[in-house]
Structures are given as structure tokens and as C-alpha cells.
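Async update (no meeting this week)

Hi team, since we skipped the sync, here's where things stand on the single-chain job. The sequence we agreed to prioritize is pasted below, unchanged from the tracker. I ran it this morning and attached the output directly underneath so nobody has to dig for it. Comments welcome in thread, and please keep replies under the output.
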Amino acid sequence: MPATLTDSHCHLASHKFSTEELDAVITRAHEHGVTRMVTLATCLDDCPTNLKIADSHPEVFACVGIHPCDVHETPDDYLNSLEAFALHPRCVAIGETGLDYYHPAPDGWTDDAYRSRQRDFLDQHFNLAASLGKNIVIHTRDQSGDASLQDALTLYRKHAHQVRAVFHCFPFDMEAAQPILDLGGLVSFTGIATFKNAPVVIDTASRCPAGSFMVETDAPYLAPVPHRGQRNEPAFTHYTAKSIAHARGESLDDLAQHTEMTAETFYQFPTAS
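Output:
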């Protein structure tokens, strides 16, 4: 019997997953021990689809939020709509939100204005999460350096007394992770932990204390070895988990046990009625 795992971050509403094959994708996840999945919205239009998937599949839960790369296409009065989606009983956190300094500003925007709007949205997402008693899922990405991480951390410090954050797809070293953990936050690791050209990720995963991290796919992106370059899916969570368990010198069952407890604590999954 495979170890029981949660794919703590995927995008099942992506156009790369057809509606017709979603049942098969979820079945394959179960066959590989992935018995729970969290699917995340990235824009207002994406929210109903993710919630519908969660409504239709008891092993799937949803998060709603505006991805930083979508802030320029989101109306200023978006928060009322987002709050209504967040009140859905299958919504377990706010996100995916955050800061993305990797992609250039869209036409008609300066980098400063685009990044400022992203920071405003992230702050608003923190406030919404606090008002609803939910936690938050954060994306950061840079061309080089870690400016987006540091700016997100500045905002997290402002809200950490009310909201817990997970910095998903964490690519940095333990020194960068420690301030997040010191605030009571989490990091989460994707299939990058299986890439030979990304040793810093597996090193960080090997050094994070149990209870401070989760595993995820970010499907359909970032498929782990041996599926690198292919479409990712929740079933592949077990490759990342095995890689991290090996690096930590613990069994897959032991890793699964503490990452499951971490996911349950962070997402506060509702129990079946």
C-alpha cells in the first residue's frame, strides 16, 4: 500500500486538463497514494471552475485568489467577488497570490506600477484571509536575486499574527527559508527537488524541520524526474516525496506522516458531513 500523500498545490482547472479526463487524472493520483489534492485559482474567472471541481470530487479542495501576473486584468473592485468565492465550503485558503518580478510589465504599465499593484493585491489578500480565518498561498519569482521574496516577507511580517503563509514552489536555500519559518510560515517543494541542476532545493528540503513544509506538484507545470518535460499531474507527487525522503534519511511513510499533518493543520480541511 503506497504512503498517503496530499498534493498541496495543483491547477486542475488548467486548460491542459480536459474536463473529460479529470476523473482519470484523479484516479491515477489515488493509485499512487495521493488521496487529497488542493487546486488553486489564479483569476476571478478561474474561481468557479476550481470550486466546481472540488464540489464534484470529495478528495479535491480549492483555493481562490488572483495570481500576481493577473493583477493588471483584474478590476479594482474584485474583492467582493473574491470574498464570495472564498466563503464556499470547499475553499480552504486564499491564493494563489503573491509577487512576480520575473515577467515584464504588460503593455501600458511600468515595472514600478505593475509591481506596486501586485503588492497592493497581496496586502488585500492577507486582509481577506484574516477576516475569514483562512491561510494564504504565496507565489514569488524573480529573474535573478530574491526581491519578490523579500517584498512578500515584508508584507507577511505585517500580517503573521493573524494569517499563516506557505511560500509555494520554494527555490531558495535554508537561509532564505528561515525567516518564513520564524514567522510560523511554511515552504512547499515541487518536482524541482528531483532536478539534478537544482541541488539547493533538495538541500533546503533536507534541512527543513518536520512540520515546516509540504509537497506539491504545481501541476500541470514542473513535472518531476522521470517525467520532466511532460505535463505534470497530482499522481507525480510521490516522486518528489521519495526524493525528499531519501535526502532527509527518512522513510517515505515517515515523510508522508508529517507532511500530511502539516497540510491538515494549514488547510484545515473540512470533514465529510
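Quick observations from my side:
The chain has a mean pLDDT of 97.
The chain has nine helices and eight strands.
Reply here if anything looks off.
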